Amino acid sequence: MNLPTQQSNASTPIVLTIAGSDSGGGAGIQADIKAISATGGFACSVITAITSQNTKGVSAIFPIPIEHVASQLDAVFSDLNIVAVKVGMLADSNIIRIVAEKIKQYRPQFLVVDPVMVATSGDLLLETEAISTLKSELLPLADIITPNLPEGAALTGLSVPQNESDMNAMITDLRALGAKAVLLKGGHLEHDDSSNDLLIFSDEIEVLRAKRTQTKNTHGTGCSLSSAIASYLAQGNDVLKAVQLGKTYISEAIAHADELHVGEGHGPVNHFFAGHTQLR
């Protein structure tokens, strides 16, 4: 499969991922770099936390000291022409605040926020008290946020949707978070034959549908999708087109996940399913 890209001959589409490191390689910074690379962008990174993690779960989290998060941000922004930023795991309120401060200082063209709170294994990745900081400091700066259903519930205070009607009932509260757009991902509705997402703008809603693949190897799907969206935005696509392309990419990566044999738990998606030569 050829992955469509829209690149400028004048510049390299540079995408910054700000997230935690997954030692197992399936999610976090590692998944972000793979997804950005596979979809035609150049990835740079700022690591916010180091996790001891594999396909079976997270055993430890070490937040990076604030001054080192700040110095990483200054280093990449002061040299690289970063067009789009993807934000993932931020761990605590202090890290959220410094990231928001640097986003305001350097003003990248696009900001994609994946409000990472819970890993595929169920492990908590964001301190509960930090959610209010995320909502007040960072989400209003975003061009698009990409919560899954449990994350949408945590952000709005509503119950986790059990069907598409429940997802629709969450729209008003998600709009109130202040981001320009919200992609509410329906992947957790596992009884449905399709995996349907709601792309919510201030004045309209798009429903994105994809055939559901039955596999346990879905580690890093949220990280990879948000990174792909950031990559496509950096290449000149508008939000709707970037999300459509990102949805196509992650659906194929999941469909090919069982071709990999990594770990004994929730394995990773297959980021490079298309082969390197076809991605140029």
UniProtKB/TrEMBL annotation:
PANTHER family: HYDROXYMETHYLPYRIMIDINE_PHOSPHOMETHYLPYRIMIDINE KINASE THI20-RELATED, PHOSPHOMETHYLPYRIMIDINE KINASE. SUPFAM superfamilies: Ribokinase-like. This is hydroxymethylpyrimidine kinase. It holds the Pfam family Phos_pyr_kin. Keywords: ATP-binding, Kinase, Nucleotide-binding, Transferase. Its EC number is 2.7.1.49. Pathway: Cofactor biosynthesis; thiamine diphosphate biosynthesis. The keyword Lipid biosynthesis does not apply. NCBIfam families: HMP-P_kinase (TIGR00097). One of its GO terms (cellular component) is cytosol. It comes from Enterovibrio coralii. Residues 22-270 form the Pyridoxamine kinase/Phosphomethylpyrimidine kinase domain. It is an enzyme of class 2 (transferase). GO terms for molecular function: ATP binding; hydroxymethylpyrimidine kinase activity; phosphomethylpyrimidine kinase activity. GO terms for biological process: thiamine biosynthetic process; thiamine diphosphate biosynthetic process.
